[in-house]
TrEMBL record:
Residues 587-596, 618-633, 719-737 have a biased composition (Basic and acidic residues). The chain crosses the membrane at residues 55-76, 92-111, 166-188, 194-213, 314-335. Residues 642-653 have a biased composition (Polar residues). Residues 1-34, 587-737 are annotated as: Disordered. The lineage of its organism: Bacteria, Bacillati, Actinomycetota, Actinomycetes, Streptosporangiales. It comes from Nocardiopsis flavescens. It is found in: Cell membrane. Residues 56-337 form the ABC transmembrane type-1 domain. This is ABC-type multidrug transport system, ATPase and permease component. GO terms for molecular function: ABC-type oligopeptide transporter activity; ATP binding; ATP hydrolysis activity. Residues 312-586 form the ABC transporter domain. Residues 601-611, 661-670, 708-718 have a biased composition (Gly residues).
Amino acid sequence: MAETDVPSSRPPMSGTPGRPLPEADRPSPAHVGVPDTRGPVRFLWWLVRAQPRRVALGSFWGIAWMTGVLVPPYLLSRAVDEGLRAGDRDALLGWTGTFAGVLALTALASIMRHRTMTMVRAHASLHCTRTLARHAVRAGTPLARGSSSGDLSVVQSADVGRIGQILTLFGPGVGSVLGCVAVVVVLWGFAPVLALVVVLGLPVTALVLAPLLRRMHTRQNTYRDREGEVTTLAADIVSGLRVLCGIGGKERFARRYRERSGELVRDGYRLGSVTSWFEEVSQCAPLVFTAVVTWIAARLAVAGELTAGETVAVYGYVAALIVPVAFLVEAATDFSRGHVSLLRLLALLRVEPERHGGGEAPPPTGPGDLADPESGARVATGALTVLVATDPAAAALVADRLGGRVGSAVTWGGTALREVDPAVVRARILVSDNDAHLFAGTLREVVDVRGERSGVEVDLALRTAAAADVAEALPEGLDARVESQGRDLSGGQRQRIRLARAVLADPEVLILVEPTSAVDAHTEAAIAERLRTERRGGTTLVVTASPLVADRADRVLFLVGGRVAAEGTHAELVAERADYRALVLRGADEGGERTPQRPGTGTGGPGGGHAAGAVETAPHRERPAETAGRDIGQDEPGGTPTAGNAETAQSEWRTPQRPGTGTGGPGGRDGAAAAAGAGRGGRPPAGEHRRGGPGTVPGGDLPPGDRTAGGAGTGGQDGRGDGRRGDGAGTEERGGR
């Protein structure tokens, strides 16, 4: 988050000194430059202008190197005519020494040319990468919707290198063009007919190669498309491997990947076939030149029109002409490959952020209400607001509009949000959803992305998100490495880490989209209470249908058909609206619904009681689809439980029973273990006490330390069982009271 001088009525995170956050890094336009995306050639010229001195130096060394390639034939002709034929030993030694010196200088020029052009290509590739990264940050959601991760990966890993390779044209390419011109001029001095053969032969070679070059370009385009698709599929499989294993789709996706990669191999063979023909023809064409010109020069020498030394020089010049022609053919090949990559990069750079205003309006000088006229939603300053919607997609769209992710008529403190500088909006309004990227690094770096928060603040954010057990379960705690997107964490752990990161950012306005969809009721209740405490005085909007979170909100907005149909407290809406009651209290008995109580005040749920200070949700609802596949330790929202890892706590989602009479399953939760075998159930975490019933599914393997001791509850019945935690600790648990 970025620093802001706007005063806030909310105190800083409890237990830590208040201080502003640093301003986001924004490189100046003069330093970065604006890429010219009007076409491939213009973009290439923009890359050249980004490093003019280095490109000019590369051109100089390219010309010097080509000059060194073309001078030796002249030196050989002088050595033959003035040394060998004249019998002058000194002249022969002089021209030979000069020849050796030119070769040494040519080798030096070749080294410097290659070194300089390598730097030019590397700089161009890096410039493309940085430009795309900056544009991705600026474009945001539209770029994410319009491109896949595979496309971005291929552009960053392969396309930028091909684009940089095109800049070879400005080094040896320039020298090659001048070299061809120089050979034509020199041959014209020996015999005009030789120069005409070269002048006519170059266009003929281009005409022969053109059809092959076009076909190669077409197949390169097809291959590049397929490459992006396969890369995207591979990335999806890797990121969702645990879910695929859970739902039994691993083999199906593996078969699909094999089919797509097989198609890519076949496209590669087709491309290789055309490329091989192109390279062979391009290498044979200069040899035909050499043969024709040498034959003509020999006839002229027999006729006495050329001396022996001149004949040697003509052969040398034509043989040397192979080098610049080969470089020009190679440059054409590089441009064909790079042109496809250029089109891909330009397509991404042309994606514009969905902003319809000028970004010049001043932001509110202090905290202000967010209002969305399209839905009628208003987020009050300094309050905890919950948005409950019959359509989750509509609620997510409202969150995007309120966060400035999409263009809309949302106002912020009376100012049109779309007219405010996007950097200011991002600095003061944070939208966090379950698609937010988790970067690789230590757990501390993942949570504190700027590395400017103290350990106390990080610990407090983790506690607020009920994620302290994640750090405790890792061998190195906060210093443990976390893979990109948290692939080595469970779904619930990733969700809580994202929430901790958002809480630690401490923005003026925090918008959370389904922050507790992958956690159990106990954890959800703890998060709701702690979030309310830590965000006291701040503006917070939570998009969720959880009654545990809604009960702690200052205001609840009920969205029906994309419009706010009612608002009030959770208790008021439960009492007044049957549709709201049916949504948030799914599976409840219409005649005996009870409003969820504050911690420590609830009565016993089915098969168990409450611990002091926690809640077992009284209006037990049918398990929603988004949590139906919550796995123990692998709780991906929407997944299907795997054998041995399913949470089967029947009491949490069944119809309410009389306290102490419900038949509970193994007490499981995100990060807690399920009971194994025929015991009466594992001990639930703190306060989430349920009566143990016959265990039906073995417990899952969980990281050690991800458990808390249970407290005394009310209304539960003692049950002693032999359930074991899934962390391998072998600790015998007892049913909660």
